[in-house]
Amino acid sequence: MYRFSKxxxxxxxxxxxxxxxxxxxxxxxxxxxxLAIANTKIPxxxxxxxxxxxxxxxxxxxxxxxxxxxxxxxxGGNVFDVRVDADxxxxxxxxxxxxxxxxxxxxxxxxxxxxxx
Length: 117
Fold this sequence. Notes:
Elements: H1 6-17, H2 20-38, H3 44-55, E1 58-65, E2 68-75, E3 78-85, E4 91-96, H4 101-114
Antiparallel strand pairs: 1-2, 2-3, 3-4
Helix pairs in contact: 1-2
């Protein structure tokens, strides 16, 4: 199962809509992240390695958001959300992921159909 970030879905919608106005919006929407990532001292690959080592597992998803890398790591049947500072390369926080929000939304939809709602 693939997960898509909000920015990926927005980009797909922009491509689907087409037009110069939407292309200009896309450029502005991604410009800040592109500049921020270009100015980080720690590359994504290093942040993933740091998160994997911290949680003693394998990364399944990673994204950049406001100066931090958010990496999901599977370890021993659990999923951990590990945040890595993009300038220092240090782990900022690590927490066991207690539920997949996307799956929870689908579970709610399924329950509603099963119960006739």
